[in-house]
Amino acid sequence: MTDSLAHTAGKDPTHAGFRRIDAEVWPDVARLPRARLGRTAAARAVLRRVCARTPLSLLTGEATPYGSGPALRLHQPDAFFRRIGAQGLIGFGESYMAQEWDSDDLVAALTVLAAHMDGLLPAPLRGLRSLWGGRRPQAQRNTPEGARRNIQRHYDLSNDFFALFLDPTMTYSSAVFATLPAGHEVLEEAQRRKTEQLLDLAAVGPGTRLLEIGTGWGGLALRAAARGAEVVTVTLSAQQRDLARRRIAAAGLADRVSVQLRDYREVEGTYDAVVSVEMIEAVGAEFWPVYFAVLRDVLAPGGRIALQAITMEHQAMLRTAGTHTWISKYIFPGGLIPSREALSAHSANVGLRIVSDHGYGEHYAETLRLWRERFDSTTAQVEALGFDTTFQRMWELYLAYSEAGFRARHLDVRQLLLMEGTLR
Questions:
Q1: Domain termination site, one of 85, 103, 134
Q2: Is the residue at 139 inside a domain?
Q3: CA 272 to centroid of chain Cα atoms
Q4: Angle between helices 89-97 and 389-407 (to 10 degrees)
Q5: How many domains are contained in the chain?
Q6: What is the average per-residue pLDDT within 256-272?
Q7: % helix / strand / coil in the chain, to the nearest 5?
Q8: Which of 46, 225, 297, 347 has a Cα-to-Cα distance from 114 of 20 to 30 A?
Q9: Contact indicator for 304, 209 with CB cutoff of 8 Å
């Protein structure tokens, strides 16, 4: 049996600024999970171990904090440790959504955790992480129907919502800055630079037949058409399709761009170039062989494939692959970030070779910082769109968590050029 949190039952808030949680919308946040024998105590011990060995501290209301450095300020320590004891990192995230803890420097605290990810559990317990987090739900498999549901859960939230923190190009992937930190450079300029790099990598120019897998809101398709390409771009998000079509029509390029609500597995035709920007993370490991086979099958002889992909270390990917995480539960259902080894192996298996591979994760950290700062300044606008405090805290944590992953070099982002190899 789960226990309702005191504050969801209508009692006094536990700290200043607390906003009540809607238990119908957020059932797993509004109620504490079952207390499992020994796990809550184990969670306390693990977090104290982390604070003793890393520059991180816990403020629990006691006279002396645990550790030193960026702090996790626990408003409800018992609930915090109970959630982690029951569900690991899912519980950690839900505890933040439940307003049970905060941090004066959330990114710094999460960067410490990301940098010491492998040392958070004692060695004998590391193999049990999948049991702590549970297995991924079968409903999140990226079958054609499942992929449509998964994509719509994230990207069909609201075009107006994404416009609050993205730049005017509506680009939702890593920018490339002239220098770091960004200084006075406008995010829009850095996003345009990234787009030009990818189109250059794919050799897109007048007359190029281009396939884009993952439309976003149409920014890359617009620029490719302006270069003279004939573009087919596919997405599973109806809201993205509709806005992309309006933007393309407004630019007078509708005769050069076809925006289709279509799964990548349904693509037809042959193309001189294929571009796919941070879409493979949504494919799911089970379907990576199919994804790369599609890339090969649609590519004309001598054609070029430009991919932009987030990556993680291979062993971390293997540990994450079958585990239900906070990100897979709340942010990207069905998603998995690949490793460089996985990209290389799956492309080679279908006769594609990686011709070039360039990483620039520090640019993604900067991109996320700018998105996060914009998002944090739009609380009233987000609320006006119908998103409650729990949703806003979920997105605060997601953006900060992602930035921390890149700052700790737990994550990277890479631009790759693939061409046909010897197999066919």
A1: 134
A2: no
A3: 29
A4: 130
A5: 2
A6: 98
A7: 50, 15, 35
A8: 347
A9: no
